[in-house]
Design brief:
Serine Threonine Protein Phosphatase 5, Tetratricopeptide repeat; membrane; mainly alpha; 6 strands; 19 helices; about 500 residues; SusD_RagB_dom; single chain; cell outer membrane; TPR-like_helical_dom_sf
Length: about 500
């Protein structure tokens, strides 16, 4: 609760300091400037909490949202719910929109607002002087700010870059300062983005305090957050170095795969066995379940439901995922029946509220999946198959994994299946198809009953230009130097 209160206070103070730039440079009597707002280490700590508060990949509701919503609605894991009033239909049908409230606007705006907030607090750290233990604490705060700035830049690259493998493709705007409102910028290249991101992460690793008490809790950014993010970046840029397999093993040694009971508890926010980092959501925060429900996870309330196709896969394998992800109040009339009410249970509510759950952003399961893909890309096909089977065994899955994959395509196809099941509704599916789909010759292919629920399109090729989001109209209007993505 203390963290939540500090977040509110910071955002209020920051809004005052930002508004003076938007209106006038004339200093008004009694105006709260950044110099006045930040005078001590405690002030800087409150600033850090505000940066955490700004970052909201799980935000949205009632047919709009950020990256968690985007990966669900643009992929093949959703259908219209029985309570639907058309929520999400435009996005499901890939109707191009990049105005205020659209997916492209929401993701871009949220990441750059978070980057701006982080840069403001980093600027304060550069102005203030600390010594002794306060300097150690200030460096630990700086490390977290650099790490979240790197994360936000990386996510902009993921969504707004046409080709990860081309170093000269336009990606994000590298921002390590607070711009003037009159400034305009072209986007940097992917190569420049990755260099910038890695510099932030490497610097952060030199600043963390291993003895800081926050390291014991997954709601705080730590060295392991940075290691994990490096693995995600490696997959995206195509770095299959065996050194990354070693890094994955280091993380798995500290974060074992959850047991059946621990896994169920994780989604109820009572177990963190395999959680490396999560966004804390408490009383008063928006509930992530409101991306799918009007009020709470339960019958008659879901305007978005699990697709029949995903349900069929989970139902066939059984185990912990079937229990954790499919609400027990669901009604299955028959296989692929349009009357099926398939209620999403990945965010079942918690002690904080019936629609509120922490967003588990980084888990050991994903590390296991990254490790398997890296092994496959190094022709370690038997090892990759073993790694996937370990995850399936931990989940109590009845899906059989071959003793060894016969080639890379077979391996990637099976790993993509496992990623779809394990990481559903966590902001991965659409990005996975964008990244691996061209290699396998697959795009989004929806069950006919699922797409009929939206009267929508069933197939979207991975070569479709809409697999790269548009630069939002608000950015185009205010930044005359920026280039729009092709065909928008």
């Amino acid at each position: 609760m203390k963290k939540h209160i500090f977040k509110i206070l910071f955002l209020f103070a920051l809004s005052l300091s930002v508004s003076c730039e938007d209106a006038t440079d004339i200093l008004q009597e009694g105006e709260l400037t950044e110099d006045a707002a930040y005078r001590s280490l405690a002030d800087v700590q409150s600033g850090l909490l505000g940066v955490y508060a700004a970052y909201a990949p799980d935000g949205g509701g009632n047919g709009t949202g950020n990256s968690l919503y985007a990966n669900a609605i643009l992929g093949d894991n959703l259908k219209a719910g029985l309570a639907s009033n058309g929520q999400g239909a435009q996005d499901y049908n890939y109707v191009v929109s990049f105005t205020s409230g659209s997916i492209p606007h929401n993701i871009w705006n949220n990441r750059y607002v978070t980057i701006n907030f982080a840069n403001r607090v980093l600027g304060v750290l550069d102005r203030l002087t600390f010594t002794g233990q306060e300097l150690v604490e200030a460096n630990h705060i700086k490390a977290q700010l650099l790490a979240i700035r790197a994360l936000c830049h990386f996510e902009v690259v993921q969504y707004y870059t046409t080709d990860y493998s081309n170093p000269n493709t336009l990606g994000a705007i590298n921002m390590d300062f607070v711009p003037e409102t009159s400034d305009v910028f072209e986007r940097n290249t992917v190569s420049e983005n990755l260099t910038f991101i890695k510099e932030d992460l490497n610097t952060a690793l030199t600043l963390f305090d291993p003895s800081n008490a926050t390291n014991a809790s997954p709601i705080w950014i730590s060295e392991d957050f940075v290691k994990f993010l490096k693995l995600r970046i490696a997959l995206t840029e195509g770095d299959s170095s065996t050194a990354n397999i070693t890094l994955a093993n280091e993380l798995l040694a500290d974060y074992p795969l959850a047991s059946f009971g621990e896994y169920i508890g994780m989604y109820l926010d009572v177990d963190d066995t395999e959680v490396i980092f999560k966004l804390s959501r408490v009383v008063g925060d928006a509930g992530v379940a409101q991306l799918f429900y009007f009020n709470f996870p339960g019958t008659g309330d879901g305007f978005l439901e699990m697709s029949n196709e995903l349900f069929n896969l989970l139902d066939a394998e059984g185990g912990a995922r079937r229990q954790a992800f499919v609400n027990s109040a669901s009604t299955v009339v028959g296989p692929n029946d349009p009357a099926n009410e398939l209620l999403i249970n990945k965010y079942p509510g918690s002690a904080a509220g019936q629609a509120i759950n922490d967003f588990k952003m980084m888990r050991a399961s994903e590390v296991q999946l990254i490790k398997a893909e890296l092994q496959a890309r190094n022709n370690m096909f038997a090892d990759a198959a073993t790694t996937i089977q370990e995850l399936r065994t931990a989940r109590g899955s009845a899906t059989a994994t071959p003793a060894s994959y016969t080639n890379l395509n077979v391996a990637l196809t099976d790993i993509m299946l496992e990623r779809r099941l394990e990481l559903c509704y966590e902001g991965h599916r659409w990005l996975d198809i964008k990244r691996v789909g061209p290699e396998l010759g697959i795009g989004v292919t929806r069950n006919s009953v699922d797409c009929a629920s939206f009267e929508g399109i069933c197939d979207i090729s991975s070569s479709d230009f809409r697999f790269t989001l548009a630069i939002p109209q608000s950015e185009i209007n205010g930044n005359t130097a920026i280039s729009q993505n092709p065909q928008y």
